[in-house]
Amino acid sequence: RKIDEGREQDIRECIGCNICISSWHDSVPVRCTQNPTIGEEWRREWHPERIARAGSAASVLVVGAGPAGLECALSLGRRGYEVTVAEAADEIGGRLRFETRLPGLAGWGRVLDWRRGQLERLANVNIYRGNRLTAEDILGLGNTHVVIATGSRWARLLYSALEIPVGRIEGPGVFTPDDIADGVRIEGPVVVYDFDNYYMGSALAEHLARLGHAVSYVTPAGHASAWAIMSNEQPQVHRALFAAGIALHTLSRVTGFAGGDLTLANQFTGAATRLACKSLVIVGARFANDFLYTALSARSQEPAGIQSVTRIGDALAPGAIVHAVYSGHRYARELDADPATLTYRRDAPLGRQRGTGMPGLAANEDLEKLP
Is 124 exposed, middle or buried (0-12, 13-18, 19+ CB in 10 A)? Predict the structure, then answer.
């Protein structure tokens, strides 16, 4: 229909991330990185092309123009709110600015491209690039609601035999994906230590190999990018690492790093091995960049006219891009909504009894509404 109406620019192109199929493998409600209403048409009655008008004359400040912030601003703008977006960097996109430059991820740029194109057509949404705000700045802007969408940072943590991140490792030669994104120069041989287990570790290893470094990939899991089995991408990941000449070390934990020598322990037996390593890139845990939220929460907001300060996306709970987009969209949908409407449907077994005195349920009553 959009093509027939000459609205090709409104089509959300698939980015090929396979999050949809991973939902099926994980037995959770289906999700789509590009379209956060997918899977919620029945559960929450979210329509992909229709959204309720603004419930008040409130103005909203969105701090951060990554996947969550952009989706939030776009959906709020469509509802009719006056929206201001403040982005600290000189360009919008957040994590997408770097991740789309990694091998195989260029198509993910459509997440940014589509939202940028849609936002440019909304006169009630203004984006200010190169604006790093403080809590004091925000208190002086006079917005009714403040949304913190400042993303997350990778941590220099190790991984225990109990399969949890533990023990920080610092010092020369220890890096994270954020350092690579910032353009820090590293020296080979390089070891990418991946216990995030999604795409970042393997994509980063391939990226560094293309730059001419000798790269080894270490993971405590049994395969490279272990979670990618959910998105049907694991075979391609292994082929790509092999083609790039990257040595693969599975079922291995990093236990020490000093003097160009990296010590590994087998995840199950504890047997030690060593690798030559000048640069260790840790792809493991991430922590929310919620310092701005914390600073605002410690201040009195009422004199500034602020009614709410809310975190979304990675600033609330670091996850995949699909989760950030969903988080931003949900905030926009639920702003000023009647709390009684913020429920979702759930399938209930046929004939299930609710309480006493109910002989059963008819087939068309096979629903529950949950908060």
Answer: middle
Which sequence spans correspond to the domains of the chain? 8-151+289-337, 155-285
In 3-state terms the chain splits into helix, strand, coil percentages (rounded to 5) of: 30, 20, 50
Percent of the chain scored above 70 by pLDDT?
94
Q: Are 231 and 240 in contact (CB under 8 A)?
A: no
Residue 253: both structure tokens together: 């934990």
Q: Does CATH place domain 8-151+289-337 in 3.90.180.10? A: no
Q: What is the C-alpha to C-alpha distance for residues 168 and 183, in angstroms, rounded to an integer?
A: 22
Output the CA angle 312-233-32, nearest 5 degrees.
35
Q: What CATH fold (topology level) applies to the domain 155-285?
A: FAD/NAD(P)-binding domain (3.50.50)
Alpha helices in the chain (DSSP H): 19-26, 67-79, 96-99, 109-119, 135-139, 177-181, 200-210, 234-243, 291-297, 321-334
Cβ–Cβ under 8 Å, residues 352 and 361 = yes
Closest CA to 118 of 77, 67, 65, 85: 77
How long, in residues, is the chain? Answer: 371
Q: What is the mean pLDDT of residues 85-106?
A: 97
DSSP assignment, residue 303? Answer: G
- The C-alpha atoms of residue 69 and residue 87 are separated, in whole angstroms, by 9
Phi, psi of 52 (to 5 degrees): -65, 150
What would the pLDDT profile of 210-269 be if each residue is shown by its tens digit?
A: 999 999 999 999 999 999 999 999 999 999 999 999 999 999 999 999 989 999 999 999
When pLDDT is averaged across residues 198-203 and rounded to a whole number, the result is: 98
